[in-house]
Amino acid sequence: MQVSSLNEVKIYSLSAGRSLPEWLSDRKKRALQKKDVDIRRRIELIQDFEMPTVSTKIKVSRDGQYIMAVGTYKPRVRCFDTYQLSQKFERCLDSEVVTFEILSDDYSKIVFLQCGRFVEFHSQHGHYYRTRIPKFGRDFSYHYPSCDLYFVGASSEVYRLNLEQGRFLNSLQTEASESNVCDINPVHFLFAMGTAEGKVECWDPRTRNRVGLLDCALSSVTADTEIEGLPSISALKFDGALNMAVGTSTGQVLLYDLRSSNPLIVKDHHYGLPIKSVQFQHQLDLIISADSRIIKMWNKDTGKIFTSMEPEHDINDVCLYPNSGMLMTANEAPKMNIYYIPVLGPAPKWCSFLDNLTEELEENPESTVYDDYKFVTRKDLENLGLAHLIGSSLLRAYMHGFFMDIRLYHKAKMMANPFAYEEYRREKIRQKIEETRAQRVQLKKLPKVNKELALKLIEEEGEEQQISKKRKQKNLPNLLKDDRFKVMFENPDFQVDEQSEEFRLLNPLVSKISEKRKRKLKILEELEAQGQEEEEEPEGKASDAESSESSDDEKGWVEEVRKQRKLLRQEEKLKRQERLKEDQQTLLKPQFFEIKEGEEFRSFKDSAKKQKLMKKTLEDRLKLEEKLGTLNVSDTTVGSKQATFKLKKSEQQRKQQEAEKRHRQERKSLRRSASHLKSRRGRGQLFH
């Protein structure tokens, strides 16, 4: 809850603080209330007392139980039950509501005037009937004795709709081209309407004749007011049988006695904004007038300001809760503000706890900072010559200084320092000197990487700034200040190699372009010094001469590139000769390499054979495989082909098989020799 004070009047803003989104779950809301102190300390007097986007009008039923508000978007009406401190119902409408009126004591009979010339009637269950008026309406009032609705708008006629008979009656013909607002006196039921010409016409509903005319536009212009255009009537409100308050589109409020054509008092808001609402507060004889920026409360007899409020968002409507100190506003924001001013009256019975809460806050007062006061220290008071006021009611002690009235501060400063203009003049001269110093050439620290490139970019930036100032163009972004190219001046890997072939070939072109740019800038400066335009050619030099000069530059650049190419070819030739000499001097020695176990040695001839084989078609490779015996193709009984492949054996397997074959042959030969010896021995014994 936010507390403000003006003229020692405490104003408690009950809707201050952060609001929680509707789509949050109860669990998340409780978690946020535990974490956030501001959410935990806020006072939500009526739950979800807000609109989706904007609230336009707000009213209280006669029994004080229901608060109704209309707004957008989508166009809708919301009814809040004060006994339950929550929303009772919500109804969406087809078009935006200009204004509405509660005809019954509760919410059971409501009339809406919509922007599409529609008049919509709602009962307790919802939509009841809808009709249309001939012209666009801006306001309407209900005449209780005859059950007539009086509609005013973009027409000179006042349309009457009788709710008892259910038909339109003869309209009232006025002298105005258009009417903005209207109201009916609650005592003698005099009908008054405010016109776009700044006049108020009063009509008697019984005779349907005009009984009075007030020229408020002429009366609103006083010696102290400054207006632009003709003031039109934007607000109108009766008080009792004789008093009437009128608000104009230029920000003035006029209080009339119906027995006189001259206003009793004229109050100016000094904002030049149309008056949105005028209310009467009878306990303290106050008038509450509001425009889109400020709500002012002032005495209707003297015009003295009682207090004022400036909400954060623009105001659309103001509603004073009957017989209490509560004030509600419809704003250009989702949240509708609720203010409680204990001086105006007690809190309503459905929120009587506010009285106890404000009493506790007043027992522990907190120091507040005032907008109309100036904070000064003891040294400031001595400089102003007001040190003798310490301890008086003109100074209020606060922290290490005092608060004093801003008007008194300005008067004392003018008297204590009559040469304030000289100080102001010296300060302006100092600022001009600082501006000229900023335009001078400033030394900038070059980066560690690509220093030459950075220096070149700085020079180009200065030249482009001069050209853009003369031509009134926007400056182009600098690469040194761009984060995308920051690494180019920090990482050594991005260092420009000036000895590379690309740089040496492009460098003549870059240098020639920079020289040409400098020459062009010099020509432009000479033209401006002579008072000529930039499009004209400099005197004493024809366009042919300039073209010949440019052709000479191109010839020089071509020669420079050719020279660099010739040098590059010579350097490359020298490098080749040096490499050839080194190759001739080096002696090649035979080297032996050991093959790892399990790997085969394959000569280059085998790889060449494989490459040749891979180049052949599949048919040729199959024929070759058949010749080698690794492939066998045969016909089947079904008529298809059957191919059988024999995998090639590796060199190691082949050697192993050959070793086994030799081993078998050796064993076979040994067995033969052994059997031969046995046979010979047997024959020898036989001979003996």
Shape: elongated
How much helix is in the residues?
Answer: 25-40%
Tally of strands? 34
Q: What is the SS-derived class?
A: alpha+beta
Which range does the strand content fall in?
25-35%
How is the CATH topology of the domain at 2-363 named? Answer: Methylamine Dehydrogenase, Chain H
CATH-level-2 architecture of the domain at 2-363 = 7 Propeller
Cα distance, first to last residue? Answer: 144 Å
Tell me the radius of gyration.
51 Å
What integer is the average pLDDT? 80
Instruction: Quickly name the level 1 CATH class of the domain at 2-363.
Output: Mainly Beta
The biggest beta sheet reads: 5 strands, antiparallel
Biggest sheet: strands side by side, in what order? 1-2-29-28-27
* Number of helical segments with 4 or more residues: 13
Return residue spans where pLDDT drops below 50 for at least 5 consecutive residues: 532-547
Domain Nucleolar protein 10-like second: 369-417
Domain NUC153: 482-508
InterPro entries: Beta-prop_NOL10_N (IPR056551), NOL10/Enp2 (IPR040382), NOL10_2nd (IPR056550), NUC153 (IPR012580), WD40/YVTN_repeat-like_dom_sf (IPR015943), WD40_repeat_dom_sf (IPR036322)
Family: Belongs to the WD repeat NOL10/ENP2 family.
Give a summary of the structure in a few sentences.
The strands form 9 sheets. The protein has a 5-stranded antiparallel sheet, with no helix packed on it. By secondary structure, the chain is an alpha+beta fold. 32% of the residues lie in helices and 28% in strands.
